[in-house]
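Q: Got a minute? One more chain.
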Amino acid sequence: MGGVDWAGYRRAYERFLPHISNSWDFTEMLSEMLGELNVSHTGSGYRARQPGGDATAALGLFFDESYTGAGLRVAEVIEGGPLATARSGVRPGVVIEKIDGTAIAPGAEFDSLLNQKAGKRVELALFDPAGNRR
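A: Always. Here it is, folded:
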């Protein structure tokens, strides 16, 4: 790996780190980087957690990373995801203020509010600024 521009790789990949909150995503990012290095005998792997370990539910949303207020402002609803129904009321611009009654402070970590919730009902408190409705 002689001659590798480590500073360049750092600049390229460090921007992803604030968005990685689990081993699977970290392993995928590391695998991408190692693939770019194109050297032998390198790799990255993932081992599933033990039963009863963390299992974070996915809402099927992308959030507006530039939003600085309380809650999570929805940027996109992923087609086929759990909230991709008209009945859910979730669409771009809507802010998720609470998950199961817990308010989401500006910039706060929220994945823990979805831990052990996969396949279960989750209550979301929504605010639609377009209609000024909760």
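A: The CA atoms of residues 99 and 113 lie 7 Å apart.
Q: Perfect, thanks.
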